[in-house]
Amino acid sequence: MSKSGPSSTDASRAHAATSRGAFSSSLGVLAATLGSAVGLGNIWKFPSLTGANGGAGFLLIYLLSTLFIGLPLMVAEIAIGRQARANPISALRQLQPRGAPWWLIGVAGMAAAFLIMAFYSEVVAWVFAYVAKALSGNLLSSDPVQTQASFDALVRDPVQALLWQWVVLAFIGGILLLGVTRGIEAATKRLMPLLFLLLVLLGGYSLTLPGAGQALTFLFAPEWHKITPAVVLTAMGLAFFKLSIGMGTMMTYGSYFTAEQNIPATATRVMLADLSVSLLAGMAIFPAVFSFGFQPSAGPSLVFITIPAVFAQMPGGSVLLAAFFLLTAIAATGAMLSLMEVPVVILHERWGLSRPRATLLTLLILGLLGAGCALSQSTLATFQPGGRTLFDWADYLSSNLLLPAGGIAIALFVGWAWGERAFAAQLSNHGQLGNQGLARVVSLLLRWVTPVLILLVMLAGLGVFSGA
Ligand code: TRP
Prior knowledge:
This protein is mostly helical and 468 residues long. Helix content is 76%, strand content 0%. Helix 11 packs across helix 17, helix 11 crosses helix 19 (436-461) and helix 17 (390-418) packs antiparallel against helix 19 (436-461). The radius of gyration is 22 Å and the shape is globular. The chain binds tryptophan. Tryptophan binds next to helix 2, helix 3, helix 11 and helix 15.
């Protein structure tokens, strides 16, 4: 097939991308992909959403969404990226049938990346602030009123909220500008097991608290009447968010995958590891919720108010508390870097900006957008168009609208436009792995099931069927 003009330019740009960087080993691929998946989604979003949406029923829908929607889409995105070896826009332009504007998915993805980072960076800011405050010792308390007051004092202070966000942006910018991404990858690889260990310890301890039984019931015995369409949509949105899919992150990372990497096996491992980190976070938090009289529906503050209460019971609590938030900060940094990679690589490869300039521009835009989220509980607290603060809008729109819509588009692209043969070739490493049967199944899912399912959940969740 002959290539049109723009496509060959894309191909040469893609070539430039290949020579720019790639993950060097199988373990590196796994660590980086896991580094993107594991972040605040596990430690902060998962517990607060599970708590706010009634527990076990939500968890079950989340699990189903992860398996039947998230996993196939993650495989699809990585396959697209590895085939094209380019940023999402160039990748889709290169693979799309002539004249069909599938590359717009990449543009929407870039917008989604900014929206997510705008509020994500503020939550990272709270985590950074907690590292500092934990060391002073005055965060520790098993009195719910007091831990909530400490959290409120932070988020309701516009100066602290903004300054900590700038610290985060400067920190991330520094990492990228110094080109120590590799260093961060190496650090993540070593420190993630530590976070895991600390969570096991914390979870184990929490399960000895008097409220543990109640917590387990809350997490694992569904109350079916609590599962509303809105709850289902939120659970599906969480599955997208946690696996970093629907906006091009996994496409971008896929473009750095080695040719030998087994894509479905890697995606499955990442999904399982990501899931266990979330469950551990749940085990650490919910027993404390029920033991000390917190509300499971506390929302975004949940982690910040319960974890200090658990550590307050332990010797050396303030050091452990600081360590917990430090490790969380590191996990969040890895995820944030993967979010940033999408606009940065697009600005670099398509707009011809140097990587440092692309990084600075991204941070600048983020500083402006992020301020709206940072101030949403102080200066802008009363600015709630449509009943939500800017922070809540950024969070809601990205997970419940943009990521699922991106997911539909990606599923349709792979199922209908790209072609099963090319997809199967990526999944089986051109016939070297026995994944052909699997490719067939995933392809059929992406063609008929995934997009319809996402659409139905979205429409129901947004109240279209109930006329709300
Ligand atoms: N998955 C990350 C987390 O759980 C966040 C994240 C990184 C993300 N890259 C993404 C979310 C892309 C959506 C899309 O914290």
